[in-house]
Amino acid sequence: MEPFTTNIHEMDIASITAAQPYGVAIGLDIFGYGDKIMVSNGLIIIICRGKGSVLIDNKRYELSSHNLIILPERHIVEFCHQLPRDAYHSIALTADNLLAMPSPIDTNILNYSRFVSVIPITTEKYADLSSYYTFIYKETREESLYQQEILQSLLYAMVLEVAAEYESHLHRDAAENIKAEDLSDSFLRLLARDYRKHRTVAYYAEALSLTPKYLAAAIKRITGRPILDWIHEAVLIDAKMLLRTTDLTVQEISERLNFSSPSAFVQFFKRKTGSTPKRHI
Length: 281
Hints:
Structural class: alpha+beta
Largest sheet: 5 strands, mixed
Number of strands: 10
Order of helices and strands: EHEEEEEEEEHHEHHHHHHHHH
Shape: globular
């Protein structure tokens, strides 16, 4: 079944969470915002059960019995049918909220959500994550002396569980998965793993035993976006996170992202954002 609306409804997470305890929105009615949405200023974690499908930037994800979904920023999400309200739990939080947690969350989770937004999870993991959701939901609706600290701890634990699931999924039997999955999944999995070291279409094409021209055309056709957009976005998001959340110098960040020199990194960053890295510290 094809999505049944063409209107894009923006979900501004910063506005949605502004008046909520600890700046987190629990139990959003995702479908109340329309069947085609675009998240801004944060992300939404969804735990769901029941089969169906969802399109994210024209990439179709088939839902299995139990799934974990992260709706990333600035990507168009289309639900091909509505899930029953009791079949999913949602938590919306801003990137600032993630970065304010007690220990740095691996910022790769923010990149992974752009490449592989939907992953299957076991029945047991669904139950575990649903339990976290229930505790968090209950705590937001009760007043207690240490409410903020309790919410912070519960959210931190849940996000760590989510990050662990994505890490496990993306690195499990990588070589076999690359052969078994369709082309776009194979490319996006490689990109999530290797973007810090490799930024050329030729590298990903060779890894997939394809020509660069064929891979570039296929990714554009499947996702609706040029392949270099995907590659550059991954690097840019990581660069911004490193600038905001670490004490690394521009030179150290350029080395971590495998640029030939700090000046090459600065030129890349300015070309993509219109400003220098130091403006984002």
